[in-house]
């Protein structure tokens, strides 16, 4: 019952080792190792926000279908597609 | 002397600009409120010299390489127009990102003074900043400011510093190591190397000057609020409840209550003017003045309190940080029809006025999404359409709250439906897009700012009523008084008037929609100049002086008589309302669509789509409504169904063509 409730609020944690933010665990901080997209403008935009290889990113929560991430002391909401483009280890 | 304000989105540039210049430019708590540069003159309070100092507010930008169109304005201005000083507004709670842009500004050689804004939040978070250290490391002065405060906000010191720096040279705080640049062989690589070096430098500076107690990455109270407010299933009902609250306060409770008092004054004024003129003035002139000007304009101005309350509520909503959450909640749904969560912001702003709503689409990166949003935003009933809604729900549906509410939901439904059609026509139904949006911190909305925004809109509304609407009403009054030979139209011969003969051909087209009277056609046409005109013109052509009852707390007085004069069934009345709401917006809003779409094909396609939508929805409402209430279809069903059928077939054909152009859906999900 508690598990169900936690699930509804996006509190589930995942055990397997994530390769991108899409499968990251909530509350965990990761190091970005790649930005996998052919959209060079988006890649550059992420860069200007400080979201590039070697930088730290935290998955704060998952709201609706969006991922709330913290990069360089700022919060962003990104969609699943963008989350899957941000490779982490 | 010219001072430019530049900085990251939502760092408080416009708030600072308003404080420095006394302007009332729109502010809000999300990234991308300001979409154009704004000019102002420094208040004498801050200016010790006689020289006029120009302040330029620029849209927020994360860097010198623009991502969306409004960001490029910032770059173009600071690079090409050489301001004497740049005030770089930096959100003090987010140095590690903001200083990246600062280092880029410092490279321009123009003196930079940093306004370290939102310093009140530092105290809250117990973050300690070494201002002296910052000034030394960055080779430019840092001044603490709190732009939202009126006293002790640091603005005096900021301006003093900026004026002292005018005309000086600016040193750059860091150099990219030569060997790193040599290693990078081509241009793109060089830029990347420089940017990385910048971020490394910033990281190092922040480490040495900032002592934090609260890490941003930790979950806060705000995140807990977000879990509820932007929850997968609760988010939509909460958004619905918030919007319902906004509309019910402005349209069924506080708004009408204030409107009632206000209309009493207009009535009294009518009486005074009528009395003063007596019988000495020619009946023609007195009717022009009383019915055309005071009656027509009064009918519109009577709704001023409703609109002001609406703008007050919207300003509170924009100020608290909720808008970005609405975008989060709606993204899931809008994505299905090819839009993104960002499209909801123009639409919410559009409930106040479509023009700023359409302009807000500028922050949407994807071209098709931006154009589609600009095309569909006018379907949200705006403040000018409020009087129309209020009039019809009062006159035909005894002020039933469902009428207004239904109109907003219908607007949303048409937007979703329209987006679905557009994404298929353009052949982009399988195109992949990304969504990213900064989530601002919640804050308590400022009553003062909401009040200012309300007064500002109220003023604009009165000016509009006193100019365009007054002129239109006077013109309508003259056109219906005279025939083409410039003789006064006799009683019983109203259909020979200039107005009637112009409007009649249009009225024929409206027969299948249930309202083929020239008076109603004329009102709908004047509605394209300003939507309030629909009410004003109806007041003039039907000789109704005031729609708002001053005795009973009712919006529309003698509702049965108003309904009787217009001679509409309730199905036809609802169809007429729907037609006026969902046809193309006023010309000013069409102008805004033109500016944002930057493409004539899209503009005319959009207008055609809006016209078609208005026609088809009104047709369905009237015919189905008539069928339900009387058991048989309304007048002109056969010609109407042919017209509607042709439109639907044309749209389907275009969607088919788009589907053939579309790229196939990507097979597997990229992991």
Automatic annotation (TrEMBL), chain A:
Q: Which domain of life is it from?
A: Bacteria
UniProt KW Oxidoreductase keyword: no
Transmembrane regions listed in the UniProt entry = none
**InterPro entries registered for this protein in UniProt:** Fe-transptr_FeoA-like, FeoA_core_dom, Transcriptional_repressor_C
Report what the protein is called. Answer: Ferrous iron transport protein A
Does the keyword Iron feature in the UniProt annotation? yes
Q: Which keywords accompany this UniProt record?
A: Iron
Q: Which organism is it from?
A: Fusibacter paucivorans
Residue ranges constituting the Ferrous iron transporter FeoA-like domain according to the UniProt record: 19-89
Gene3D superfamilies, sorted: 2.30.30.90
TrEMBL record, chain B:
> Which key words are in the record?
Cell membrane, GTP-binding, Ion transport, Iron, Iron transport, Membrane, Nucleotide-binding, Transmembrane, Transmembrane helix, Transport
Q: What InterPro entries does the record tag this protein with?
A: Fe2_transport_prot-B, Fe2_transport_prot_B_C, FeoB_GTPase, G_FEOB_dom, Gate_dom, GTP-bd, P-loop_NTPase, Small_GTP-bd
Instruction: Give yes or no: UniProt keyword tRNA-binding.
Output: no
Location comes to:
Cell membrane
Membrane topology for this entry?
Multi-pass membrane protein
Q: Show the PROSITE patterns listed in the entry.
A: G_FEOB
Domain FeoB-type G stretches: 1-168
**Pfam families from the UniProt entry:** FeoB_C, FeoB_N, Gate
- The question of whether Transmembrane helix is a record keyword is answered with yes
Give the transmembrane ranges.
228-247, 293-317, 337-361, 408-427, 461-478, 498-518, 525-545, 565-590, 602-624, 636-655
Xref: SUPFAM superfamilies: P-loop containing nucleoside triphosphate hydrolases
Organism domain of life: Bacteria
Q: What is its main location?
A: membrane
Which family, according to the similarity comment?
Answer: Belongs to the TRAFAC class TrmE-Era-EngA-EngB-Septin-like GTPase superfamily. FeoB GTPase (TC 9.A.8) family.
According to its UniProt entry, what is the function of this protein? Probable transporter of a GTP-driven Fe(2+) uptake system.
Q: Which PANTHER family match?
A: FE(2+) TRANSPORTER FEOB, FERROUS IRON TRANSPORT PROTEIN B
Name it: Ferrous iron transport protein B
List the gene name.
feoB
């Amino acid at each position: 019952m508690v598990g169900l409730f936690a699930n509804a609020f996006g509190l589930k944690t995942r055990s397997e080792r994530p390769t991108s933010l899409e499968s990251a665990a909530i509350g965990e901080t990761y190091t970005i190792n790649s930005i996998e997209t052919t959209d060079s403008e988006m890649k550059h935009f992420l860069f200007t926000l400080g979201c590039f290889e070697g930088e730290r990113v935290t998955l704060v929560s998952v709201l609706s279908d969006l991922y709330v991430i913290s990069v360089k002391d700022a919060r962003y909401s990104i969609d699943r597609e963008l989350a899957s483009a941000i490779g982490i280890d | 002397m010219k001072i430019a304000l530049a900085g990251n989105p939502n760092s408080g540039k416009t708030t600072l600009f308003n404080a420095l210049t006394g302007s009332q430019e729109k502010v809000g708590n999300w990234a991308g409120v300001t979409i154009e540069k704004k000019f102002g003159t420094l208040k004498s309070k801050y200016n010790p010299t006689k020289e006029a100092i120009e302040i330029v507010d620029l849209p927020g930008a994360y860097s010198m390489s623009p991502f969306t169109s409004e960001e490029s304005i910032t770059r173009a201005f600071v690079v090409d127009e050489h301001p004497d000083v740049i005030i770089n507004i930096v959100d003090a709670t987010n140095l590690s990102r903001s200083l990246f842009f600062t280092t880029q500004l410092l490279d321009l050689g123009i003196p930079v003074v940093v306004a370290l804004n939102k310093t009140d939040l530092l105290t809250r978070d117990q973050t300690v900043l070494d201002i002296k250290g910052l000034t030394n490391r960055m080779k430019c002065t840092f001044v603490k400011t709190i732009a939202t405060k009126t006293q002790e906000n640091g603005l005096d010191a900021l301006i003093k510093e900026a004026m002292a720096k005018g005309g000086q040279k600016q040193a750059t705080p860091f150099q990219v190591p030569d060997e790193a640049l040599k290693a990078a062989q081509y241009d793109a690589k060089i830029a990347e190397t420089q940017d990385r070096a910048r971020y490394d430098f910033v990281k190092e500076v922040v480490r040495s000057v900032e002592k934090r107690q609260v890490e941003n990455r930790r979950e806060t109270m705000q995140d807990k609020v977000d879990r509820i407010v932007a929850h997968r299933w609760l988010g939509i009902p909460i958004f619905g409840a918030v919007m319902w609250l906004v509309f019910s306060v402005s349209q069924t409770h506080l708004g009408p209550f204030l409107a009632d008092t206000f209309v009493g004054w207009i009535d009294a004024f009518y009486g005074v003017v009528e009395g003063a003129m007596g019988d000495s003035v020619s009946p023609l002139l007195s009717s022009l003045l009383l019915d055309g000007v005071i009656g027509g304009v009064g009918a519109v101005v009577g709704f001023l309190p409703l609109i002001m309350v609406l703008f007050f509520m919207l300003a509170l909503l924009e100020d608290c940080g909720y808008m970005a959450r609405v975008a989060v909640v709606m993204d899931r749904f809008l994505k299905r029809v090819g839009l993104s969560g960002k499209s909801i912001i123009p639409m919410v702003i559009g409930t106040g006025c479509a023009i700023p709503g359409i302009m807000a689409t500028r922050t949407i990166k994807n071209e098709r999404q931006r154009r589609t949003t600009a095309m569909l935003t006018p379907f949200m009933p705006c403040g000018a359409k409020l009087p129309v809604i209020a009039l019809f729900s009062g006159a035909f549906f005894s002020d039933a709250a469902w009428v207004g509410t239904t109109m907003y939901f219908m607007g949303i439904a048409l937007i979703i439906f329209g987006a679905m059609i557009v994404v298929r026509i353009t052949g982009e139904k399988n195109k992949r897009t990304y969504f990213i949006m900064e989530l601002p911190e919640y804050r308590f909305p400022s009553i003062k700012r909401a009040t200012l925004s309300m007064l500002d809109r109220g003023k604009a509304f009165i000016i509009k009523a006193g100019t365009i609407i007054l002129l239109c009403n006077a013109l309508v009054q003259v056109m219906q008084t005279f025939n083409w030979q410039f003789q006064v139209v006799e009683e019983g011969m109203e259909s020979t008037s200039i107005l009637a003969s112009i409007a009649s051909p249009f009225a024929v087209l409206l027969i299948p929609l249930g309202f083929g009277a020239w008076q109603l056609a004329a009102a709908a046409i004047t509605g394209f100049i300003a939507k309030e005109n629909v009410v004003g013109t109806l007041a003039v052509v039907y000789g109704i002086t005031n729609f708002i009852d001053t005795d009973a707390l009712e919006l529309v007085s003698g509702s049965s008589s108003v309904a009787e004069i217009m001679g509409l069934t309730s199905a036809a009345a609802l169809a007429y309302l729907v037609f006026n709401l969902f046809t193309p917006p006023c010309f000013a809003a069409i102008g805004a669509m033109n500016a944002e779409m930057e493409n004539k094909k899209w503009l005319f396609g959009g207008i055609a789509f809006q016209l078609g939508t208005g026609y088809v929805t009104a047709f369905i409402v009237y015919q189905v409504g008539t069928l339900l209430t009387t058991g048989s279809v309304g007048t002109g069903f056969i010609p109407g169904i042919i017209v509607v059928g042709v439109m639907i077939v044309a749209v389907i054909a275009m969607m088919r063509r788009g589907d053939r152009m579309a790229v196939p859906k990507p097979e597997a999900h990229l992991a």
